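hey so i finally got around to running the thing on that chain from the lab meeting. sorry it took forever, my laptop kept dying and i had to restart like 3 times. anyway pasting the input first so we r on the same page abt which one it is
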Amino acid sequence: YSTEFEWAYLTYQLSNNSKISAGRFRFPLFKYSSSLDVGYSYHWIQPPQSVYDVSFNNVEGFSYDYSNFSGDWEYQWQFFVGSYDDALISILDGSQIQQDLDSLVSASFQIQRDWFSFRTVYAQGDSSLTSNALAPLIAALRGAGFNAAADGVELNEDKGSFVGVGLDIDRYDWFIGTEYTVIETKNSIAPKNKSFYLTGGLRLGAFTPHLTYEINEDEPATLAEAATITDQTLRLTVLGVATSLEQETKIITLGLRYDMQPNMALKFSITNLDDELNSSNDATLFRVAVNYVFN
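ok and heres what got predicted. didnt touch it at all, straight out
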């Protein structure tokens, strides 16, 4: 038995406007990064996974936060340096893989006034991936002398980047919000991911009906080095692996939140997933949840 902490950090308040933190905490990539585990803080049962389902949510390092006012506008800066490492499950064969992100840095900025808020974030790091599923292909490429192509298939300290923007309009009686993200690893077989959601709802007393539309696209990598592979079997294998990582899904969720008490919410949702590349993966999911927070 072993205990693993998703959060474990110390914070020192430098002034009324700034603070520094050190330890393990949520990577500040999204609007709800800091409250992902507090379901009561948002209207969904679960935030849109097309955007929020990234492997590197919990990171270790240092952050600096600064907030202030400019006229009627409130703004916040957040900077982070650190690293990430964890074991994941390969989508190629279900085996365990090791992912490492080193030299990880990020900067986020948020500005808000009354019912309007805007947020943007940029992050980058050196990405490495140890995969048993790709090891035989990498070895075969190197054995045949195609080292440049092998470097493209093997993720070893390749530069990865994350870009995100978010916008929210909350008039209390009604609200709309959106987040758009792009994840890319240069010169590698990893697909370029583009994800987006648009959500909106009405607050009718204790009831909040809402609708969310999501898009998730993994664009297959275009490896220039693949053209240098003269062995047709190896070339087709590399192109086949790149193509197998392609995804395109669209999701619509209709939900209802009922605030039973000031600290308790009952939620219902029905979600329809449409796989644009493989209709056999289409699915409909109905969920019920209760979120509770201690006063």
